[in-house]
Amino acid sequence: MNKLKIGQINLKNRLFLAPMVDVTDCAFRLLCREQGASMAYTEMLYTNAILHENKPTLNLMTIGGKLDRPLGLQVTGNNLNEFSKFSKLSVLQNYDLIDINCGCPSVKIVGSEAGSYLLSNPDKIASMIKVLKDTGLTVSAKIRLGYKLNNVMEISRKIEKAGADLLTIHARTSEQKNSEPADWSWISKVKREIGIPIVGNGGVVNGKTASEMLDIAEGAMIASAAIGNPFIFREILRFIRTGKEKEIIKKERVDSFSEYLKLAEKFDVFDISRVKYLGANFLKGFDGASQARSALMPLKDLESINDFVKKI
Q1: Which of 11, 47, 189, 283 fits as disulfide partner to 86, beta carbons 3.0 to 4.6 Å?
Q2: For the chain, what percentages of helix, strand and coil (3-state, to nearest 5) are there?
Q3: What is the model's pLDDT at position 213?
């Protein structure tokens, strides 16, 4: 697989772990990197929460040591003055790039005129990028095809003109559900129009689809298919080499969940709700998995969960 360069960042391959709320803490990122993910991000955070040093937000900004590189800090917001103040924070120098989320479709985020709501105002996205670029940061943006209407060509051109180093396109509009097919043809159309690297997202769920995405874009971003399944990166790389994938066995899944717990404790990012959500996704694909997931849910602390995992 060819390598990829974003600004001054050299990636070992072209596989990206998507930023996902309640998923991509540093512990989970490290598991995915171990299996082959090259680029990863924090989960999406509000610029104003970072400015106000909100404690849970600062915890989610934790970096998992030197192996958790390169790392993007993903943020969203709607206020250019806040972005200007944010751009001057010294903590940003701890990250390899800053990614602006212009794609989150959640009602809460859109209601605050952030996330995918920004797609209705491409000029504001461009201004946010310029504010960050003016401070010398490496900057990317993650978008969808549009908010209510598809205006991806206009958005993409303005993002490139503003100086972004990378563009990630989730090939659905904000109003489309993830169950609806992603329209990759728009990634190809944008690719023909702009010169910065493009990462494709939406519908990348295995080696075959990742390989197909890499035929039309510089990078492939894996989102929901990676939840509780860091092995997807290993298997994508295997497929690219051999045309085949290997089945993930029970021991691998359980051991990976156990390792996640150790890393979450080590980096002080243990969160009981997140652990149960991720655990329910690790514990799939083997006989007795349903019973294991049910047994996990009533547990209330790290010690009891560790004991439980040893018995699976």
Answers
A1: 47
A2: 45, 15, 40
A3: 98
Specify whether 104 is catalytic. Answer: yes
Q: How far apart are CA 42 and CA 19, in angstroms?
A: 6
The residue count for the chain: 312
Q: Nearest-CA neighbor of 168 among 97, 232, 237?
A: 97
**Residue 64: closest CA among 256, 263, 221:** 263
% of the chain surpassing 90 pLDDT: 97
Question: Which one of the listed residues 26, 32, 102, 104 is annotated catalytic?
Answer: 104
Q: What CA–CA distance (Å, rounded) separates 6 from 105?
A: 26
Among 104, 173, 180, residue whose Cα is nearest residue 142: 104
**pLDDT tens sequence across 173-188:** 998 888 889 999 999 9
- Residues 6 or more apart whose Cβ sits within 8 Å of residue 81: none
Structural tokens at position 249: 């066995």
Joined tokens for residue 265: 């404790």
Residue 268 has pLDDT above 80, yes or no: yes
Residue 151 has pLDDT above 90, yes or no: yes
pTM of full prediction above 0.90: yes
Report which of 200, 252, 256 is spatially closest to residue 223, judged by C-alpha positions: 200
Give the Cα separation of 300 and 292 in Å (integer): 15
Per the CB < 8 A criterion, the answer to whether 58 and 268 are in contact is no
pLDDT at 155 over 80: yes
Three-state SS string over 53-84 comes to CCHHHHHHCCCCCCCCCCEEEEEECCCHHHHH
| Residue owning tokens 């040093």 | 53
Q: How far is CA 181 from CA 115, 173, 192, 218, in A?
A: 21, 11, 22, 21
